[in-house]
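Per-record layout

source: Sinorhizobium fredii
name: Redoxin domain-containing protein
length: 185
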Amino acid sequence: MAAIPPLCDFGWKAVAASLPATDGRTYSILDLSGPNGLVVVFICNHCPYVKAVIDRIVRDSIALRDHGIGFVAINANDAEAYPEDSFDNMKLFASRHALPFPYLYDEDQSVAKTYGAVCTPDFFGFNRDMELQYRGRLDASRKEIDPADLRRDLFEAMAMVSRTGKGPADQQPSMGCSIKWKASV
């Protein structure tokens, strides 16, 4: 089922957490920021929205390095209910798509809950002070693989953040599959 996150809560501070990554290391999210900011994106392996845009996510993460913006992806889906999102399958996904950023596993879903993640993909763009400046879409694509020349909303917003410390006032929300939360105990 498609989900749409709320718009940007400008100034909300990024929350530190350490999570295991597909490369065998453990990373502190905030340590992955660049000198001008950080993008934290919640993705998963099975979501058709993510599958349709993963190559553009990779492209934009590489391009944002030149603007001093770090990048990290987090999977918080319930892997018991959705085995395709297991940690082992995350490793395969990271390798298959040559992810140039750490892909972290939020097994207990605490980070996703703290960030208020709603869907995959769900992008959070922070400035150098780790204040939220962007909570929007990658581009206008949905579940289909759209032309590569779509307006690059995330890239343009984060390039602006790298220059000014502020994100655009007008932001289009991301859309994707809802986070697959674990059943309450």
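summary: The longest strand covers residues 69-75. The beta strands are 2-3, 18-20, 26-28, 37-42, 69-75, 103-105, 119-120, 122-127, 132-134, 176-178.
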